[in-house]
Amino acid sequence: MMQTAFAQDIQKQTVNKELRAQLPEAIRSAGKMTAVNNGSFPPYEIVTGTELSGATKDISDAIGQLLGVEIDHASVAGLPALLSGINSGRYQFAMGPVGDYPDRQKANDFVDWVREYVVFAVDKGNPQGITSLDTACGKRIAVMSGGSAEKVIKEHSQKCVDSGKPAVEVQSFTDQPSSILAVRSKRSDAFFSSQAPLTYFVAQANGQLELSGVGQANGFKDIYQGAVVQKGSPLGGVLLNAFKVLMDNGTYAAIMKKWGLENNMIKAPGISQGQ
């Protein structure tokens, strides 16, 4: 449903000679580059077997057309493998979007192309009344293992205890489908995670789930997510300029709307804006 709603609106790009000239010579002569991902992150990256679809794939296709190169996609397991693969030169970049945080900026440059928010997915009607971090004390909250949401909820659990309330029962899962299943099967009261994939999962849940805590900070500063390149790589500037073109000509908006991501759009791309 979401995939085809705006399928007609994505225009094919013509090669931008100025941008193509900015590419490193090795990439121009190879005629292609490899982008790495760490598996499904719907609706940006949906990996089915070896096939990639989603907003990231559509953006990659458009940028490849602008630069006159083919963009191949490779999957690795986990963010550390993704980052080390870029830094070793095995992959040229990740289109992501990957969370742009100061500790990650030490080793990589980020080309931010979306903003993200962290919210709750709960049962329809929100029977547990989870609307913010303050209402999560004593509740069973699913999170992604090793992610920033896990760190925030664990810190908040300590605040619950310090103020005489019951601790949050933090339930860490290795992937998003398992976390969503835990909420649907009533083993978790909520899943605390990024708004974009949660919006996608809620849309797939036939009215059984809803979002809560939307429009609040929920323990986070402004979150930017973007493409990732080696620190100081000239490719960062090329991607930045390619995003500017796609934002100016309406392609970026068409792709984001196609995948239900209009709430995550930004007006202009930026380099390593995460705080």
Can you describe this structure?
- With 275 residues, this protein is an alpha/beta fold.
- The protein contains ten helices and 13 strands.
- The protein has a five-stranded mixed sheet with strand order 9-8-10-7-11, with helices on both faces.
- Helix 6 links the parallel strand 8 and strand 9 (169-173).
- Helix 3 packs antiparallel against helix 10.
- The longest helix has 15 residues, at 148-162.
- The protein is elongated.
- The two termini are 36 Å apart.
- The model is unreliable at 1-6 (pLDDT under 50).
Short description:
With 275 residues, the chain is of the alpha/beta class. 35% of the residues lie in helices and 25% in strands.
Which terms summarize this structure?
five-stranded mixed sheet, alpha/beta, 275 residues, disordered N terminus, four-stranded antiparallel sheet, 25% strand
List the helices and strands and how they pair.
Blueprint: H1 17-22, H2 25-30, E1 32-37, E2 46-48, E3 51-53, H3 55-67, E4 70-75, H4 79-87, E5 94-100, H5 102-105, E6 108-116, E7 118-123, E8 140-144, H6 148-162, E9 169-173, H7 176-184, E10 190-194, H8 195-204, E11 209-212, E12 223-230, H9 234-248, H10 251-258, E13 270-271
Helix pairs in contact: 3-9, 3-10
Helix content: 25-40%
* Shape, principal axes of CA atoms: elongated
Order of helices and strands, N to C? Answer: HHEEEHEHEHEEEHEHEHEEHHE
Low-confidence stretches: 1-6
Distance between the termini: 36 Å
Structural class: alpha/beta
Average pLDDT rating: 93
- Oligomer, anyone? single chain
How many strands appear in the DSSP assignment?
13
Q: Which strands sit side by side, in order, in the main sheet?
A: 9-8-10-7-11
Radius of gyration: 19 Å
- Portion of residues in beta strands equals 25-35%
Question: Count of helices?
Answer: 10
Largest sheet: 5 strands, mixed
